[in-house]
Amino acid sequence: MAPTRTDAEAAWRVATPEQTILQLQGISKSFDDKRVVCPLDLDVRHGEFLTLLGPSGCGKTTLLRLIGGFERPDGGTILLAGRDITRLPPNQRPVNTVFQSYALFPHMSVFDNVAYGLRAERRPRAEVESRVREVLNMVQLEELAGRRPDQLSGGQQQRVAIARAVIKKPRLLLLDEPLSALDYKLRKQMQIELKRIQRELGITFLFVTHDQEEALSMSDRVVVMREGHVEQIGTPRDVYENPSNLFVARFVGEINVFDAEVAEVLGDGRLVGQIEGRRITLPARNGGFAVGDALHVLLRPEDLRLLPPEREEGFSGEVVERNYKGMTLESVIRLESGLQLLASEFFDEDDPDFDYRLGERIKVTWVPNWEILLPRETARAV
Amino acid sequence: MKLRAPFRTAVVALIWAWMLLFVFLPNLLVIVASFLVRDDVHFVRPEASLESYARLLDPVYAGVFLDSLGMAVTTTLVCLLIGYPFAYAVSRLPARVKPLLIFLVILPFWTNSLVRTYAMKLLLATNGLTNQALLGLGIVDAPLRMLYTEGAVIAGLVYVLLPFMILPLYAVFEQLREDLLEVSSDLGAERWRTFRYVVLPLTMPGVLAGCLLVLIPAVGMFYVADVLGGARHLLIGNVIKNQFLDARDWPFGAAASILLTLAMALLLYAYYLSARMVRRRSADDALA
After folding, report:
1. pLDDT higher for B88 or A350?
2. Helices B150-175 and B59-91 meet at what angle, rounded to 10?
3. Does B95 reach chain A within 8 Å, measured CB to CB?
4. Which one, of A155, A147, A143, lies nearest residue A194 by Cα?
5. Nearest residue in A to B283, CA atom
6. CA separation (Å) from A157 to A114, A149, A154, A372?
7. H/E run at residue A334
8. E-only strand ranges, A238-310
9. B33, exposed or middle or buried, with CB in 10 Å at 0-12, 13-18, 19+?
10. Residue of A208, A105, A218, A96 whose CA lies nearest to A162
11. Looking at chain A from residue 112 to 151, which residues have their Cβ under 8 Å from any Cβ of chain B?
């Protein structure tokens, strides 16, 4: 039996953010012999906004469907608040889903769509009425209660789908790329709205997206997935600043990759790396690199600095492309070795050095200590 | 576009000519005939009369009308009971087997339905295949009487008309989105509730269309009643046919035709109203 509402509310009050609400243990799933989710473990903490991020086909939606109960895992266990729900059908899981397609009932009004979950529980009419009004009010749709889904805009339909999914106050709300069908501005607005709803309701959100910017700006933690595996779990800042491998570094934001060898290990743990024919001192990392090790030195575009060609330091290169981005200016620089770099600079109109022309020769350097060091990976498609 | 205009005019004219000649004119003749008087030599005498309509009020014909309607309704219900689960099941099958199954549904259309009705007769006859099989298996001691019963007529009608139920139902089930069933379950609805509040309302247009496509021909398929029902189980279609071909009473046959047409028009109107209601009901629910 599903826990009653008062049980669930009592559980929330005593729960602390560090408690685990959902535990996946060795969950795996294949379709027609194709592994979509490789055995993986994942803990979702109570009250957090956790995002599954990855390219299409990485298994993130399948993982969500396994938690929602729409697919049965081939192996493994799903624990919700300590209870094994692996074999329960969707209608017995205290979990609700916002579908990518919204899946609004086309033959029902907004009110009936939102009331559906409560009526399925056979709640008294008065309670249904007041709770639907309340949740429609929260998503600012009380005026449109009598409309049918095809009379609503995309953004309004999205709000109905959210209202319908949260009205039962699930322990966990699953959101499958809910914003992907909206235009840029509406998407930004809904991102803020979703965060507000999550704060107001205190529900744990498990959010799926392929949009790294969305993942970084909304999440408490991000799970980066690829081909059914979890590549990294961490706060947005962790994932962006300390990617655990080249895939994560490239998928989350733009990145410049230098191949380097360790030429010397200094006494304080710092390294001297051989990069593009130059010796560069690199920060100490707990990776424990030894002399001769091959590694990647990664730099975000915003950490690169462009200098006039007469400067001593830095790598010589040529500006091959300039893209005006409003707040920033992006330059593509080709080094003498042929390596192309992306640099992103904030506008500073007072800086005489700033405005490089296409084809102009320059020097590229970066802010010391901001390099990300990873062991060299053998060529693997990203 | 200019070059195409004559061609378009020709096509439209052809369709209009066809409709005039084969739909409008015959119907007009039937309407006119129904208001005339019977004549043994020329079929009708040009003399205005309401006598044919008056005769239709005879309780005998009212009885035939009701019996016929009863058989048609039973046929429709049987078709719905078979067709609905079948269409649902086919629509949920893998995409590669679906065309084959639908092809099998349509396949009987390739044989004339009269021929198929005679085939049915061979199956149901006293010494027919079904009885021989039952006797051979020792399930019955004496052959069952199946032919020339109301059941035989209904079985024949169901056999001929079932595809007309399945096809519109299949069309609506094909459009039934899987995510709506999933979201219903996600919101806590068990199977029955999902069926009652999601599947049924969304497939209602197909149910209504299928019922009409079965009910309307079922009232008039006289040859099925002739072949499988003998002389006793009359459909309105038989009455009409008999008046034209056997009794040679054209005005009365025409009047019966008109009555049948009007009844069917009423049904179509009811369909139009109910289809509109299906669409509106939920909106009204919210306001209530």
Report:
1. B88
2. 40
3. no
4. A155
5. A109
6. 11, 6, 5, 43
7. strand A328-335
8. 256-265, 271-275, 278-282, 294-299, 304-307
9. buried
10. A96
11. 112, 116-117, 120-121, 145-146, 148
β A172-176/A95-98 pair status: parallel
CB contact under 8 A, B187 and A112: no
**What is the model's pLDDT at position B244?**
87
Say if the Cβ atoms of A168 and B187 lie within 8 Å: yes
DSSP code per residue over B124-135: HSTTSHHHHHHH
| CB-CB neighbors (< 8 A) of A95 in chain B | 186
A69 to B180: CB separation less than 8 angstroms, yes or no = no
B279 touches chain A (CB under 8 A): yes
pLDDT at A286: 64
C-alpha–C-alpha distance, residues B20 and B258, integer Å:
18
Half-sphere exposure of A324 (CA within 13 A, CB side): 5
A99/B287 touch (CB, cutoff 8 Å), yes or no: no
**Domains, chain B, with CATH or none:** 65-287 (1.10.3720.10)
> What are the backbone angles phi and psi of residue A22, rounded to the nearest 5°?
-130, 135
Q: Report the alpha-carbon angle A332-A335-A341, nearest 5.
A: 35
Q: What is the pLDDT of residues A217-230, one digit of tens each?
A: 999 999 999 999 99
Tell me: the pLDDT tens digits for B148-175? 888 889 999 999 999 999 999 999 999 9
Residue B67 has pLDDT above 80, yes or no: yes
Write the secondary structure of A179-242 as one string of H (helix), E (strand) and C (coil). CCCCCHHHHHHHHHHHHHHHHHHCCEEEEEECCHHHHHHHCCEEEEEECCEEEEEECHHHHHHC
Residues of B in contact with A99 (CB under 8 A): 179, 182-183
Contact (CB, 8 A) for B71 and B81: no
Residues in chain A with CB shorter than 8 Å from the CB of B183 are: 97, 99, 103, 105, 164
CB contacts of B285 in chain A (<8 Å) are 108-109, 111-112
Complete DSSP assignment for B30-88 = HHHHHTSEEETTTEEES----HHHHHHTSHHHHHHHHHHHHHHHHHHHHHHHHHHHHHH
Which two three-digit tokens encode residue A134? 């309340």
Contact between A99 and B183 using a beta-carbon 8 Å cutoff = yes
Query: For chain B, what is the largest distance between any 2 Cα atoms, rounded to a whole number of angstroms?
Result: 77
A165/A150 Cα distance (integer angstroms): 19
| Cβ contacts of A165 on chain B, cutoff 8 Å | 186-187
Question: In 3D, which of A30, A36, A71 has the Cα closest to residue A225?
Answer: A36
Q: Report the residue of chain B nearest A121, measured CA to CA.
A: B188
pLDDT value of residue B279: 62
- Put simply, whether A159 touches B (Cβ < 8 Å) is no
Q: Is B196 on the interface with A (CB under 8 A)?
A: no
Comparing A122-126, A342-346, B9-13, B276-280, which segment has the lowest mean pLDDT?
Answer: B276-280
Between the alpha carbon of residue A262 and those of residues A21, A279, A292, A372, B134, the distances in Å are 44, 9, 5, 14, 90
Return mean pLDDT, chain B: 87
Q: Does B1 touch chain A (CB under 8 A)?
A: no
Can you give the pTM of this predicted structure?
0.80
